[in-house]
Amino acid sequence: MSKFPKGFLWGGATAANQFEGAWQEGGKGMSVFDISTGGTVNTRRRWTPVLEPDTVYPNHDGIDFYHHYKEDIALFAEMGFNTFRMSIAWSRIFPRGDEEEPNEEGLKFYDDVFDELLKYGIEPLVTIYHFETPLYLAQQGGWLNHWMIDRYEKFAKTVLTRYRNKVKYWLTINEINMFMTPFGGAMSAGIFDDKTEYTEQMRYQAEHHLLVASARAVKLCHEICPNAKIGCMVAYGPTYPLTADPADQLAAIQSMEMGCYLPSDVHVRGYYPGYALAYYKNHGLNIVMSDEDLQTLKEGTVDFYSFSYYSTHCITTHKADEGSDDMGMDAGVKNPYLKANDWGWQIDPVGIRIALHSLADRYGDLPLMVVENGIGALDTVEADGSIHDPYRIDYLRQHIAEMGKAVEEGVNLMGYTPWGCIDLVSAGTGEMRKRYGFIYVDKHDDGTGTMARWKKDSFYWYQKVCKSNGEDID
Q1: Which of 250, 241, 239, 258 is nearest to 316 (CA)?
Q2: What is the mean pLDDT of residues 236-245?
Q3: CATH T-level fold of 9-467
Q4: Sequence-ordered list of residues with C-beta below 8 angstroms from that of 141, at least 6 positions apart, any chain
């Protein structure tokens, strides 16, 4: 008998800006990722204010889901998905982000995608906003401005109304705490160079605007789609103290509070926690919050909590060698008990169980969902076209096993959608060779490739996992 409950959601996760392509088709406008070039291992993307000739912009093509969606969805159905996480490209619906009327051709595209998913009995899990800020809005300062909340609300209202009979599960904003990092927030505030500082004041003010926007979307969903469920999405990775020194323990707690728990406490509880308000005061930050904003946060609490989980970090108050990952985030100190992938992300299956217990302890019986988890790796296509990826199977099997233990231990887990169920463009580096998928896509870092789809060994393994409700993971 499976450890996972009946009706558990098994699927995979993607984002429009990383796999959709068709950047100038169907009336789509430009997003911040359309001016982003690819990077290399352990380097970040580069943003170019003007498109440069003879330069590869990986997101322009993505993996061309726009033209391959029927083929891809058929493959997801073959694997046994009963849910599929995707996002709606804001600039495909409102090309500049501030139009009076939405782009009907863009709306129709997602109608077709949802219809295709539902044909196979696959429930769409839709992220309203997954970093795809319309370029025009970013150039006006984006989330540094309170008016951005209204722009997002109009977008959210449009898609919630249009797809209210097709989508049961929604997420408001992807990895909302990433906007507090230089990588995640600067690009959506119109800062595309390394010389302009994205200050702490800017980061937390932008985060406040995002939290209010998310709460407005929750309120709208409850009004427009009363039978749907809408959740938050947080990038979550436990931070461990490196030593038994109490100072390290305190540093780990404070790192988790401001890095992960600040946005989720607001999402779930509806108000700013005391530690966050104290941090603002003690660091001289003046985060503007109107009474109306605070009332909105109170009224817009989420129905479930979803999160991404890839790795864990260590922190110490002692002198140590520190590292950073390809997302430009502080990776803290290397954990001597863990191995790492080719990009330096440490692999910690037990950490996902720790995360689930920590969240269940903090938020009670609120349903939880792991909506991103996976390993970026260098895959090799053999002469006969096969792709053997035991490292991916091993990584996911260990994480699913730990999730199963957490469920047995009382955690209310509702679903699992590993990241990049089909190869797509890396968010951090713009690479194609950093592959996550069960399905190989013939596209390469120089922009070449046929876009053909091939099944990896992990495709057949995950098919067994989905169809056995997580019972057969060996």
Answers
A1: 241
A2: 95
A3: TIM Barrel (3.20.20)
A4: 189, 190
